[in-house]
Amino acid sequence: MTSIILGQGRDGSDTCIDLPELLATRLLVQGNSGSGKSHLLRRLLEQTATLVQQVMIDPEGDFVTLADHYGHLVIDVEDQSEASLRAAGERVRAHRASVVLNLEQVEAEMQLRAAGAFLNGMFEAPRAHWYPVLVVVDEAQLFAPVAGGDTSDEARRLSLGAMTNLMCRGRKRGLAGVIATQRLAKLAKNVAAEASNFLMGRTFLDIDMARAADLLGMERRAAESFRDLARGQFMALGPALSRRPKLVTIGPVTTASHATGPVLLPLEPVSAEDLRDIILEPVHEFTPRPRRESRPPPPDLLAQLDAYGAEREAEEPAPAAVVVEADPDQLWSLVAEVVAGEGSDYKPLATLYQDFQLRARIQGLSRNVLELGPFHRMLATIRAGLDRARADSEDWKQAQAIAATLPEDVQGVFLLLARTALDGETCPGDEALARAYGTHSLGRARRQLNYLEEREVIVLQETPLGRRVAIVGLGWQTV
């Protein structure tokens, strides 16, 4: 068993924490400001620095000094994007680097986004890099809040989702969460509930004491004892700590935070008149520079070029382009060539229309010889299996009129059903419907039949011999 000494118990004996058990069961630390949470986390990080990879989410920059003694990499997020932080999270796992994510220099919104992106990058690392990592999050209520604050909903969702993944699903990926919070009431319950080890420090609010007592399995009356804990004293419980609630006093640490606590300093004797002169010293206001005379804006170069081009065209008119008038048979032939192209069933309509325009220009036709709407209907008609002569029949014009009332993406499916019903053929199979809809998903194609029936343009009947479709208003039916 690999254990580290966390501190001393009530009788002076060493209180140890089982590191492998901690990696499997996670830890929650709670205590009001000044209870010694940062000291506890520093003790835990120092004792395990040489035993396991560590990642510290540090919102106040208290733990950057670990880099001087233990070689941690400090990542300042003020110069990093969310994409780079996500990638950094993956690389940290690949190279097994111990890092401190310093969030001190950014506002609350960016703190949530940065922590969420970094933790998600660690969570999404490939399976080959799922080495054990001790992930310590200080002030966890900032990253997994119960209610919204001044930050955006998107940032809160990103951070809360990452914290939930860390505590709920991180164990199988080797991520062992250690979260510390000032108030349990402000921490999301689904995040706190996943911890099996607890270190509860000094707490004064009744709601926090009651919740801490519930987590430790103590009676409500015993919760009053949390008010009597001294700085650096915690009640420990969990499979990695103790099977029964146990008082532990955290041991000393080697490193220290850059930030120091409040220290009483005597006031220097200064007379009120001197203070008045210092505090109310007039501020010198600079005289603004006189404005320069406004100059006309420089001429617009592009406007000059356009005007010059217009003058040249007026002086030397370009020869009129020879445009060949297209007949319907020629347009039909061009669209049929587009339909016959490789993979045309699954290409976007815009790509097919561009292909048609290119073929039309090669034949000497205008780019707009056939607008997009008529092109789409002719395309669907050809895909449905009609020839040129039947496409101009009155029956088919009625079918096209009904198709014009439908969204463009399902018009091809309806025209295919209409053509098979008109010819009295069997209903098209799922693969034919998928090609008409432009998808490889057979299930998605089948759902279009239900949609067309809801639009009351077809009547769908499932029989033991197969599917049968009737076109509403036209009386055509498949066999």
UniProtKB/TrEMBL annotation:
Cite the InterPro entries for this sequence.
ATPase_Atu1862_pred (IPR014588), HerA-like (IPR008571), HerA_central (IPR002789), P-loop_NTPase (IPR027417)
User: Which is one GO molecular function term here?
Assistant: ATP binding
Q: Which UniProt keywords apply?
A: ATP-binding, Nucleotide-binding
Q: Which residues form the Helicase HerA central domain?
A: 10-72
Q: Which SUPFAM superfamilies is this protein grouped with? A: P-loop containing nucleoside triphosphate hydrolases
The UniProt entry, under CDD domains, shows: TrwB_TraG_TraD_VirD4 (cd01127)
User: From the record, what ranges are coiled-coil?
Assistant: none
What domain of life?
A: Bacteria
Q: Name one Pfam family in it.
A: DUF87
Q: Which Gene3D superfamilies match?
A: P-loop containing nucleotide triphosphate hydrolases
- What is the protein name given in its UniProt record? ATP-binding protein
> What is the species listed in this Swiss-Prot or TrEMBL entry?
Gluconobacter potus
